[in-house]
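Good morning C.,

I know you're traveling, so I'll keep this short. The sequence:
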Amino acid sequence: MNESQRVQILEACRALTDSIYAGLDVTREIRSVQDQALGETLAIWDGDSLDAFAVCHCGEGTEAGAGNCYIKFAAVKPGAQAQKAFGRMLDACEALASARGLGRVVAGVNLNRSRAYRALLERGYRADGQGVAMHRPDSPGYNRPDVFIVDDWR
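The tokens, ready to paste straight into the viewer:
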């Protein structure tokens, strides 16, 4: 991609996350993965519209660790097609892992995002750790059943 295309994709990612939760912006993480060659950012498009994206760390020397593809952050555009787009995003992450010879995809999700959690379970993903999310002033943030986000729970 050229710089103009990168800027366009970063803006589309920022707009998508902002549509889920005002001010949510992971463009620094996307740039960091690119600048440090830690993995890939995958963009799932439907025509000119960004349906989903995933920021992945790949293998040894990254947060993923040897043999793993770690979805550091992923988000899906809200709406009627969100669950289908979530599946397409996971397909892309699994294909990336396979192409890189990585045997495991690791993804973190809050259980309040129940539809995303169930979709992961249906694909064979299993919990191997738990965490607690605390929000002030006790708001759900983007931890809601209708939200399809994978994020860093390590």
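Safe travels,
E.
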